[in-house]
Amino acid sequence: MNPVPKHPEHASECVRADLAGDLIRWDELDFRRRVELETHATTCPTCGPALALLRRADAWLNGQGRHVQAAHFEAGACPDAEVLYDYGQGPGANPLPEHRRKSVDAHLLVCAECRELVTTLASRPPSPLLLDAPAEPGFDRQAELDRPSEPVPTPVRRQDRRPAPARRWLWIPAAAAALVLVALGLWWRSVSANDGDRLVAQGIFPAEEVLRGGDGAELYYPRGAVLALDGRPWHATTFEVAPRADAQGYRWVLFARDGAALGASREIARWKTAEPNTTFTGAELGLGRFTWEAWALVGGLEVHLGRADFHVRADAAADGLLAALELSGDERARAVLVWLHDRGYLGDARAFARTLPPTPERDAYLARKPGR
Amino acid sequence: MLLALLLTVWQGGSPTGEPCDSQLTTFREALTPMRMGDAEARRRTLESAEFLAVACGRPECLAVAKYYAALDADALADGLALEQRVQTVRGEFNAAYDRGIDLAEWRAALPTWIAELDALADSGERQPDWTAGLRARSTAARLRIALVKLDLELAPEARNALVVRAGRDLDQALAGFERAGQLGSTLEPRWLSARLAQMAGARSDARESFERCATDALHLGVPAYAIYAQEGLLGVARDGGDLGAEERALAALARLTPGEQTWSVTREWATLLLSADHTREAWDYLERHAPSEDAVADRADWHFVAGAAALRARRLDAARTHLAAATAGRADAGAVLMLARLELVSGRPEAAEELIESSLASIDLDFSAEAQRHALLGEAAFVQGRLPRARDELTQALAVARSWEAFIERSPLSPADPRAATNVIGEWLGVHSVALLASTHARAGDPLEAARVIEELQSRGLRRSGTPGAELRSLAGLASAELTTDDLRAWAASHEAGLVTWVLGADFGVVVHVSSAGRATAARVELGRAELADLARRFEEALLDTDEEWRGTLARELARLLFPEPVANALAAERDDAALLCLPHGVIEGLALERVELASRALEDRFVLSVLPGLVAPRPRAARPIARWSFLGAPSGSRARELPSARAELERLAANAAGSRLALGDACTREALLAALTDGGALHIATHALRTGLDAGGRYAPIGLEVAGGDIVGADELRRRAGALELVVLSSCASAHGRMLDSEGLHGIARAFLEAGARDVVATLRPVGDRAAHDFALAFQRRLADGDSRAIAVRGARRELAAGGHRAADWTAFRLLGQD
Description:
The structure holds two protein chains of two kinds.
Chain A: E1 3-4, H1 17-22, H2 31-41, H3 47-69, H4 81-87, H5 98-110, H6 112-122, H7 141-146, H8 165-168, H9 171-186, H10 193-198, E2 219-221, E3 224-229, E4 232-233, E5 237-241, E6 247-257, E7 265-273, E8 277-280, E9 288-298, E10 301-314, H11 318-326, H12 329-342, H13 346-355, H14 360-367
Helix pairs in contact in A: 3-9, 5-6, 11-12, 12-13
Chain B: H1 2-6, H2 18-35, H3 39-55, H4 59-69, H5 73-99, H6 103-125, H7 131-150, H8 156-179, H9 183-199, H10 203-220, H11 223-239, H12 243-256, H13 263-275, H14 279-288, H15 296-312, H16 316-327, H17 333-345, H18 349-359, H19 367-383, H20 387-410, H21 424-429, H22 431-443, H23 447-456, H24 470-476, H25 485-493, E1 499-504, E2 509-514, E3 520-525, H26 529-544, H27 548-562, H28 565-572, E4 578-583, E5 597-598, E6 601-602, H29 603-606, E7 607-611, E8 629-635, H30 644-656, E9 661-665, H31 670-677, E10 682-686, E11 689-691, E12 703-706, E13 712-714, H32 715-721, E14 727-730, E15 739-741, E16 745-747, H33 749-755, E17 760-764, H34 770-785, H35 790-803, H36 808-811, E18 814-818
Parallel strand pairs in B: 1-4, 4-7, 8-9, 8-10, 10-14, 14-17
Antiparallel strand pairs in B: 1-2, 2-3, 5-6, 11-12, 12-13, 15-16, 17-18
């Protein structure tokens, strides 16, 4: 039994300096290390935003190449990064002529990546370069922001590791703009609600199924399949039940099953919380079938909320998830969520969604309860 | 003074803070002297009452003060004198109760006291202080109710007269006290009124009155009445089999007795945990809340409940210790019976028989204990292989239970709806006895009789007359619940592959297949209720998941358990695609039987299935052509999400059905639905199935069908208002589900239609997607129009959904509940 606090992501600092050090070469890590970093980043307040930022920079780079390949985009080719920068009215931007501004307007209606980029550029980076360092005493933030940005080491992909023939001749002209973007991006120290605003909210999360009624079960998650990588749940497993207004607390019991339909079950953990959700990271949760049950403490009495099973399993098709994780920005989030939903990893999808910047859509997604 | 006693209400109620407490004390102390004519007390009463009304949220204090302030000295004195006489009678009653007088003495004393109180009430009505007479009325009502409860030999007419008079007196007392603004005085008549409603089975009224009583008692700071009221709510919940309401009432009771929980709460909660098969939790809870050694009676009772919990947990030594302590020095029938069960569980049936014969001979047994005695003797004989004795004892046990049930139903206190009566077999005797009797018949070579017993003793509510009114009920009602073996044969003959029925007790079950030729095959189901419920839950979860392999594993395991070899072999001899009627009872009713795999084929791929939660009538009813369709749904102003596919579904169906009625959006009103319920044709409704705002505490789950404006027509109302429709399609979520009552089955929307006489109901086992429901409905109706039977049309539509890529959670949800 090893329950951890409800919101571990609110911890104040990174406890895995070794993984934080890998951030700068995140896209070059081997599979196991990459998964470890990804998993760590889901709960680390420092590495999570940093990794998200690096992915966005990488995505922009990829996107530039792709866009240049396309002879015509639906609303025209993507404008240059400089144009977008001016359009976004970032620090030091030049005013755009009206006709140029209108054409960018039209393009942005259909191009999520440029929209995202513009939003990014339009917002002033609020903090200095170092991801972890607090501001120095006497630091003049405004003066620092107004100072021209200097290039910083950029996590550019190693071309020999992931050859992309179409990009070989494209990445160079895009790199300058990318560097500017990444430099600006890395100034972005904290990723919070503002970051969510910069994401394009629409269409990332799978639509909620319309059911003809139904209150759903009181036990929400985990249920069904739970994805395992390297024999352990991909995410720390979060147990959630329908909150009861009159409850003073909750009790949780976890059983391991022997895998047979009528097989025996063995209690492996039992713990209490004040909240209707709890994260379990105990080593007991490996591959296999499990049953959990929850009780609410109401007026001194324990009210049974129900029992449910879940199955921690490896997935032979996990390459699909890893490919989705290779993507960036909204595309990445969307692809990962679709993959998880399609294969029934609903609890994992929620865990992944928690790592995304908060937006109304994300919060609405996380507020959904299973309809059945 | 009675009023002074009631005025303890003004201690520690809703006023908060020192000034309010101080003024309450002043008010309470000054009121009686004021009524005795003390002018200074009058001033202090009025001043404190004004303060309490303005500053402490206690307007009732001012109302009381003004009422008495308006009376002259003579009127006040007369009122006090009358009140004193009422109190004297109450004192005599309480003293007799504490003394423990016998029935003969009660029979003599109660009518005398009642007559005296009636006279006081009549004279009090004519006095200026008319509230004193109301106290006499309320007390008289209390004694009349006591007489009805005590004297079971009263003639029905006499009982009826007592109940009617008590109800009238309570109404009068309540109205009068409210008119006088005397909130504290309403507590007793309101509580009694609730008790009366509860005894009459009017659970909704009872609950409303108990809740009002509890609220007022808390406001006034009278925890005793709050506790009484919560205990009443607990009883109402239990009568209706409403586990959630039981939990809430018990939680409220626990809050009213903080710190050290009362034994009554502990007992009820532990019993609730045990009945829900949470044996370990019940045991732990009892251990934590043992009454002190000083509370001798509570301690003995605790030993009894702890013994029962230990027995259930198979902790036989602990059970023996507790039950021995429970019976030490007293003849307790319940504890003796529990000890006898312990002997049975320990493999000593002879000892169980000897204990029952020796220890219960000298004890007067009530219905429950008498039925249990026979049941245990029957079980003891059964395990020893003495089948004739087992059959006789178990038959006798069930006969006692039925007599008890009939006694309750024929009482003038019984509810207007005979199905709402106490479920004696399910809740008091236990389905285990039905399983034992069925098993006895099967072992004795009479499996058809086993099937008859299973069907007759389960889902009895389905076959009872729905005609309201005691007279009509007694003339036409109860006999219809009984079944003969000829009835069973007739039902089996109406389906080519016959029928299959189950009974599932705590430790094992019995399944019987009756072929269309009337040949019966029985087998034992080697699994108890709790284990099968857990397996059924896992199967249901597997249907929601994407792991088909695991689903198949569970489906095969379920088949092995539910269709043991002799029955599986009998079914194997039946023709492919033959019609088979399944009569699942208990936890099997909510199981997706259609997907259980028999000989590597899903049951629905092998047979054309119809499912019923029990035989709805002695004989099956032939299908009639559908005269007219009513299509309703997609209501406007929904509380939940809009259902875009429901509208399209209904419009297309209506367009294809000449002469049909269509009510969509704003037109899908309560009136439109109620009209469609009685036109005798077929109804197709596509809407949300949602929780009703208020749980009426009846048999049905608090769910209903949503109509325009977010209005919900509840299952209970559907049952009362619906006619005998030919076919009902419930294109809604979990419409086949509902509240589970032991031996009676799931009570929800589909059950309401079946009880109202619908021949066939297409319903859903779980929530379904809007689009999937649309696709199913169109496929089903198209197949009907093509000439398929209703059962074949359901199967075909399910297959179409599966082929169309819908999730198993959707396509496996649809089921035909009917005779087709």
